[in-house]
C-alpha cells in the first residue's frame, strides 16, 4: 500500500512539474494601446518588446525569455486587405533597413528548440505550419496564417548579417502585433574553393552551417543536420555568409562524395577568403524496392545512415548525415557518397498527403 501511495505521489509531482515548465517557458506579449505608429530606429539598443540583455552582439542565438509590451500598429497601415498577425522591421546596427531578409515564425509548444532556419528534409510535421516572409526595401515584414495565439518562435536571416532568433515569447489574440525594429549584427562571410583529390573544382556542393551546441551561439546539437548557406559554383568556388563572428563549423554535402565537416574561426565580422576544402569520393548502394504498387513507389525515397555500432569505431571518423535517393522507374534507387567499407542501414520513407515523409 505504501509503495502504491509513493508511486502516486511521484506521478503527481511529475505532472505538476510539467505544468510549471509549460506555463513558465514563455511570456505573454500584450498588445499595447491601439493606433501607434512605427517604432523608432533603435540601433543597438533594445528592440521594442524585448529586454536589453537580449541584444548581445556576441551571440548568434538571441533568446528573449522575457518580453515587455509589443505595440499594436494601426491596422489601416497594412499593405493588404487581410490584417497581418505579426509585423516588424529589420535594421542594421546604424538603424538602416535591411531588404531581402528571410523571416520565419512558428507558434505552438515544442520540447526541442530546433532552429527554424534548419534545412527541411521533409520529415518535420510542424514545418508545414511555419509562416515565412521577406523584408521589403524599408526592412518591413508581415506574417499571417498559419500563426495563431500561443508560444512564438522567430528567426530572421539576411546576407552579410548574423541571424537573429527569438524564443520564449507568446503571441496573443490581438492582431497585428509589432516586434518593432530588430537589429541584425554584422556577420562573417567565407569564400574559397571546393575540390576533389585532383585539382578540379566541384560544383553543386551544398554548404550548410552545422548545428552544434556551443558553436556560433547555438544551444542545441543535431548531428548531421545544418542551416543552408549556399551552393558552390560550377568551378567549385563559393562565397557564403549568414553566421556570427567566432568559431564556425560547416557541412559540405556533394552527391557522390563523402560528407565533409570543416571547422574554423573568424573572430571579427567581415570576409575570410582563401579557404580550400577537399572532398573524397564515396561508395554507392544501388537496388530496387519490390512488393509495392507503382503509385505508392512514386511517393517513396530510400535513406542510408551509418549504423550506430560503426559510429563507435575509433579508427575512422564517420559522419552521421543521411544520404537519400528518390525511387526511379520500377522502384530502383542509387545512393552515392557513402563511407566506404562501412555498414549502413537503409530505410524506406513514404510521402504523406501533407508532403511529409514518415
Short description, anyone?
The chain is mainly beta and 358 residues long.
Describe the structure.
The chain is mainly beta and 358 residues long. 9% of the residues lie in helices and 36% in strands. The protein contains three helices and 22 strands. The protein has helices at 2-24, 294-297, 308-311; strands at residues 27-28, 30-31, 69-70, 86-91, 102-107, 131-134, 140-143, 150-157, 164-171, 177-183, 188-195, 206-210, 226-231, 237-243, 246-253, 260-266, 270-278, 283-288, 300-306, 323-326, 332-338, 344-350. The strands form seven sheets. It has a five-stranded mixed sheet with strand order 1-9-8-5-6, with no helix packed on it. Strands 13-12-15-16 form a four-stranded antiparallel sheet, with no helix packed on it. Strand 15 and strand 16 form a beta hairpin. The longest helix is centred in the first third of the chain and has 23 residues, at 2-24. It is globular, with a radius of gyration of 23 Å. It starts with a helix and ends in an 8-residue tail after the last strand. Residues 1-80 have low confidence and may be disordered.
Amino acid at each position: 500500500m505504501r509503495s502504491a501511495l509513493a508511486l502516486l505521489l511521484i506521478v503527481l509531482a511529475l505532472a505538476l512539474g510539467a505544468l510549471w515548465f509549460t506555463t513558465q517557458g514563455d511570456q505573454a506579449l500584450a498588445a499595447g494601446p491601439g493606433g501607434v505608429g512605427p517604432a523608432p530606429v533603435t540601433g543597438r539598443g533594445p528592440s521594442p518588446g524585448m529586454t536589453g540583455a537580449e541584444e548581445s552582439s556576441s551571440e548568434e542565438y538571441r533568446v528573449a525569455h522575457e518580453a515587455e509590451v509589443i505595440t499594436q500598429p494601426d491596422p489601416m497601415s497594412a499593405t493588404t486587405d487581410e490584417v497581418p498577425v505579426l509585423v516588424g522591421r529589420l535594421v542594421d546596427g546604424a538603424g538602416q533597413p535591411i531588404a531581402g531578409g528571410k523571416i520565419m515564425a512558428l507558434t505552438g509548444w515544442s520540447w526541442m528548440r530546433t532552429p527554424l532556419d534548419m534545412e527541411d528534409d521533409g520529415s518535420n510535421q510542424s514545418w508545414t505550419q511555419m509562416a515565412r516572409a521577406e523584408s521589403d526595401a524599408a526592412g518591413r515584414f508581415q506574417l499571417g496564417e498559419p500563426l495563431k495565439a500561443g508560444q512564438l518562435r522567430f528567426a530572421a536571416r539576411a546576407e552579410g548579417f548574423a541571424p537573429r532568433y527569438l524564443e520564449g515569447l507568446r503571441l496573443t489574440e490581438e492582431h497585428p502585433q509589432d516586434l518593432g525594429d530588430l537589429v541584425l549584427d554584422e556577420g562573417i562571410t567565407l569564400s574559397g574553393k571546393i575540390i576533389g583529390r585532383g585539382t578540379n573544382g566541384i560544383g553543386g556542393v551544398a554548404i550548410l552551417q552545422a548545428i552544434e551546441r556551443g558553436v556560433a551561439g547555438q544551444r542545441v546539437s543535431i548531428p548531421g543536420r545544418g542551416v543552408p548557406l549556399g551552393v558552390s559554383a560550377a568551378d567549385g568556388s563559393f562565397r557564403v555568409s549568414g553566421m556570427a563572428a567566432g568559431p564556425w563549423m560547416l557541412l559540405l554535402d556533394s552527391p557522390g562524395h563523402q560528407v565533409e565537416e570543416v571547422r574554423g574561426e573568424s573572430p571579427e565580422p567581415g570576409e575570410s577568403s582563401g579557404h580550400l576544402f577537399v572532398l573524397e569520393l564515396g561508395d554507392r548502394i544501388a537496388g530496387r524496392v519490390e512488393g509495392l504498387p507503382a503509385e505508392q513507389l512514386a511517393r517513396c525515397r530510400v535513406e542510408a545512415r551509418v549504423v550506430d555500432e560503426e559510429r563507435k569505431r575509433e579508427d575512422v571518423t564517420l559522419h552521421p548525415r543521411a544520404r537519400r535517393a528518390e525511387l526511379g522507374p520500377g522502384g530502383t534507387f542509387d545512393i552515392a557518397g557513402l563511407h566506404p567499407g562501412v555498414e549502413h542501414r537503409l530505410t524506406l520513407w513514404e510521402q504523406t498527403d501533407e508532403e511529409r515523409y514518415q
